Inverse folding.
């Protein structure tokens, strides 16, 4: 059987299966999403791992829970295929971001089907009964519906579909399912180092992130690195009446506004000295991949209610190949409409920095520190005492996020090219190839410990509200994931590596 | 009886009374403070008015509740004294600021006695039993303990003390007790206009605000005016993942930081064009009064944990004679230590502006608008629609606070000078005379409608946490208030007007 007919068979199997079994697939997905999975909640994370392992065992995958004491377990799985000489290692994470229920339309761990995206008028609808049709534009709303529980359901359903059609995998399968991604994967490296041999493979497929914003299937060959910090700025030791002290006591909110404005220009250019120093330029293949991407910035701006600006001419796909600095939040005093006329005593901002190849997280944080010192800030690691306060008019306390560098895989490797061909064959239209994903993933661990080429195989819709309220997955994207993984598992045989 | 002996008798009566009756006075004060009184909570406000009226009736004051439908009632009281030809009108307000219980050491409407100020190690102590001594440095913690329920207790207790000593008031007394001060007194002018004849008097005494920061007794002859706004800045219509969109989508927190930094320099100078234009300069008497005030800035900085700066050389008392612009709060995304890597969709800031004589609130708001327009902002009064968003990269929505102008009373008027002499006689040391209080009071209503000279007679300690958590009154300041009002009521007879 040649590759293209294997892929065709796999796709036919996947489509037939999800057409007849769609309602049950959605119910199973909802059952999985109903498990609360806030990163750091040990009991919840353990329950997710146990549930996942049981689902894998049911698909003939040999499963183990690896556990470093006190840390979330890794769910490892393996399915060997006689005669296969290629091994794919799949990565996904089953932990999720926190969620403020009051900000959600439906509760975050009560998976709810909506007829469409909520901003497009989607209304809650019942889960379909067996045999009923399913609108591919309907969406499931729940925390982790897209980030990152969808790939589990897509992969396991792809195995079911192949099984139902009597088709076997043509590659060895390994699975590394992470429970601490949303807290920055502090022990991922330890897990990889401890199980290096068991994880031997030819390529690592990262099943996370969204497809392209124009709904094109997408592969990515790296991801931005990450660092970040929370900065606290100090005013008077207690709130002061803004009348009796306004114009005299320094206001920490104002000091913070000046600090943040001094870090980044309104046009998006970061003003921290040397911020862009050391960025590895894109090579010709990478630049060509970006140039081939569709220009969707205009429609995305319309969707997001953003006006075009002169400074905004560089396209999104080009911009995310650069490092960024983003204000995640600012908190100071009261600004909810109540009139409390006070001078706040502290102000806080939360900032994340996205790194690209060539930038070291520690160096970037040192650049931030140097910038702040140059701007007259006295930096502290703990609450300032009275003596410190009396000496320094501008005091800032920095609390650092966990951080990691960026990764960019060589797009010319044969196994990478084979995968690209498989995905192209599995899709009707063009496939977007993104040298670096805008989001951050701790891919450097896999490079450092396993020496594997890493390729991202995302399936979620881009408008999934990942990390925010009303996270969701478009059903068409779940179907795409099932098709895609069936094609990869049944189609990505050795011949593809020529 | 000459004035100085009348004042001496009144002071002796007050001191004797609070020495023997101290524990009961504190219990009565606590009962009054236990009534929740958030401005705008109609039922709570009505309950406070009814309680207050009953307390006044018990002191032989003819009391009426004036009520404009749907608004907080004014508690009006009158006590005529045969033969008196001077009438004092007392103003205080019985409504209070909102309070976030979680931010308080003791619940805001569970008045709690502390052995000292909490930052100085004060611990909760039981209210003293009858006959037990009372430490004047102990403090009652409760919302409105200082702003502004203390004057009611001080005035009514002064009447009790004079009564117990067989001393009668030597002036006619009128009382105008307000229930909407903390919401900007929207109907104060209507109440005054409707009851102009009943409110006829020789002088209005404003019983509100704190004494001087060095604990000196203080009179003030005006107060700053007030305006303010909440500004909302718009980013994408939904939260975005800061990785996939960071560096491309505009961040409303950053836009807001630039807006705020552009309004005020780090040294406190307001950068809004013409902000200081039109300020009526201090005259020689006013400037002399300020020059005579003690220099306490150094000790205040130490108390508040503030470093001295070159830009901060102007003294507090001088600075509050100028207009100010203060950031009351900033809210954008999440900055509480949780790592939610998103680009927020909106950012809000809350700003108050303090006005001095010569500045019109509407003109000041127009200066803010002009400044923002010059800075490229498109100003809206409601949520922007898609068409507006697509046309304007910088959109800000302004919501305005109620506002009013400043007032400054002529310090040379005979009745004002008489009051100054009485207060000086009632105090052991010097009395601070402040041309304009830093805080804002809607005194212009009294000037406009009643044509009265207005003098502020504050009693609260300066470190009372007014408007913030852990509001408190130092017991020594309650004692001072009782003494002071006894002296004014019994001592400020006609002879003082010579």
């Amino acid at each position: 059987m040649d590759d293209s007919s294997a892929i065709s068979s796999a796709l036919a199997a996947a489509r037939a299966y999800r057409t007849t079994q769609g309602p049950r697939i959605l119910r199973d997905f909802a059952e999985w999403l109903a498990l609360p999975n806030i990163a750091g909640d040990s009991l919840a994370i353990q329950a997710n791992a146990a549930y996942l392992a049981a689902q894998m065992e049911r698909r003939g995958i040999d499963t183990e829970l690896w556990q470093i004491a006190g840390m979330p377990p890794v769910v490892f799985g393996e399915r060997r295929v006689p005669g296969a000489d290629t091994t794919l290692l799949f990565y996904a994470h089953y932990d999720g971001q926190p969620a403020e229920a009051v900000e959600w339309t439906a509760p975050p761990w009560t998976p709810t089907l909506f007829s469409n995206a909520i901003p497009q008028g989607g209304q809650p609808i019942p889960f379909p009964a067996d045999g009923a049709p399913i609108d591919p534009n309907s969406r499931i709303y729940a925390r982790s519906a897209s980030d990152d529980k969808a790939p589990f359901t897509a992969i396991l359903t792809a195995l079911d579909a192949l099984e139902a059609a009597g088709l076997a995998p043509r590659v060895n399968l390994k699975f590394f399912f992470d429970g601490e991604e949303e807290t920055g994967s502090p022990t991922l490296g330890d897990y990889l180092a401890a199980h290096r041999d068991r994880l031997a493979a030819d390529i690592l497929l990262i099943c996370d992130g969204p497809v392209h914003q124009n709904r094109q299937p997408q592969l990515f060959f790296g991801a931005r690195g990450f660092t970040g910090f929370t900065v606290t700025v100090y005013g008077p030791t207690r709130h002061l009446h803004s009348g009796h002290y306004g114009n005299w006591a320094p206001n920490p909110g104002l000091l913070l506004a000046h600090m943040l404005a001094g870090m980044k220009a309104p046009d998006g250019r970061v003003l921290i000295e040397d911020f862009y120093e050391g960025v590895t330029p894109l090579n010709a293949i990478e630049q060509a991949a970006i140039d081939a991407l569709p220009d969707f910035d205009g429609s995305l701006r319309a969707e997001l209610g953003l006006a075009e600006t002169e400074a905004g001419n560089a396209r999104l796909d080009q911009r995310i190949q650069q490092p960024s600095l983003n204000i995640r939040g600012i908190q100071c005093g009261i600004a909810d409409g109540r009139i409390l006329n006070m001078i706040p005593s502290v102000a806080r901002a939360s900032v994340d920095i996205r790194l690209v190849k060539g930038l070291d997280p520690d160096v970037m944080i040192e650049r931030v520190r140097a910038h702040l010192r140059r701007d007259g800030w006295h930096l502290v690691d703990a609450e300032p005492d009275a003596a410190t306060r009396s000496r320094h008019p501008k005091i800032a306390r920095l609390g650092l996020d966990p951080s990691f560098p960026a990764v960019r895989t060589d797009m010319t490797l044969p196994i990478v090219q084979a995968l690209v061909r498989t995905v192209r064959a599995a899709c009707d239209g063009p496939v977007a190839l993104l040298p670096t994903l805008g989001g951050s993933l701790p891919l450097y661990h896999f490079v450092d410990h396993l020496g594997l080429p890493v390729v991202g195989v995302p399936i979620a819709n881009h408008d999934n509200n990942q990390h925010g309220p009303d996270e969701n997955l478009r059903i068409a994207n779940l179907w795409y994931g099932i098709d895609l993984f069936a094609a990869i598992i049944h189609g990505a045989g050795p011949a593809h590596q020529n």
Chain B touches chain A through 108 residues (CB under 8 Å). The longest strand of chain B covers residues 222-234.
